[in-house]
Amino acid sequence: MRIAANGAEFNCRIDGPEGAPWIVFSHALANNLTLWDDVVDGLKDRYRILRYDQRGHGQTPATPGPYSFPMLIADAVGLIDAVGADKVHWVGLSIGGMIGYGLGIHHPDRLRSIIACDSRPDAPPDYAAYFQYRIDTAAAKGMDGVVEPTIERWFTPETRAKNPPVLDRVRAMIRSTDPVGHAGCCEALKTLAFGPDLHRITVPTLILGGAKDKGAPPEALKEAASKIKGAEHVVIPDAGHITALENPEAFMAAVKNFLDRH
């Protein structure tokens, strides 16, 4: 289904019974809503679930960039409004979790909880430079040029050596991403700076991440959790950046445990 919000038209999917508590799932850069297929299957009996493709990702058309976190947060609020939800549990991975931080800071009245997965709150210089590299590489070689470097960054050496089918699934998501949408989100990521305001988040928060995540290492996520009153920090073993796919059992256990308590 398509939902208009904040000047764009988003490809969305809704699962679960009407009247159940809402969860919104927001995917990582160069992913799409199918990232969450297995997670949704495990939760849709108890929750009403909204997933969406971000601008220029999946089946959502790109709008001209650059994008910003205020824009991406406004997209989220617009979608929540459009489906008639009051408060939602927010589950986001990487940039999706960063949007969750922004919602917690600026729109706490719309949230029941936040689960931020592999989502650091700030962009140090090397992190910002990495996203400029992604923009430049995609401009020179197309999205195909960022596929294998991304797989190397996102997944552990052990998983890459086994080359399970899930890696081809992620490769396909990357290739299908519109370069304009990819660059737009990369520009937003270069400006990431939620750290100084994390203390303003008051809703229950879980920050989880892979033990071998290069972009959002455990020490950075532990520090982020320490700035949010009552926040929990969980390390997912045997996983890099895309924890929901690399260690789905541990990921799902952490998510279910948190949601059951909130």
What would you say this structure looks like, in words?
The protein has 11 helices and 8 strands. It has 262 residues and is an alpha/beta fold. It has one domain (2-261): Rossmann fold, CATH 3.40.50. An 8-stranded mixed sheet has the order 1-2-4-3-5-6-7-8, sandwiched between helices. Strand 5, helix 3 and strand 6 (111-117) form a beta-alpha-beta unit. Helix 2 crosses helix 3, helix 4 (125-141) runs antiparallel to helix 8 (179-190) and helix 5 (144-154) packs across helix 7. The mean pLDDT is 97.
Summarize the structure.
By secondary structure, this protein is α/β, with parallel strands linked by helices. Helices cover 45% and strands 18% of the residues. The chain has an eight-stranded mixed sheet with strand order 1-2-4-3-5-6-7-8, with helices on both faces.
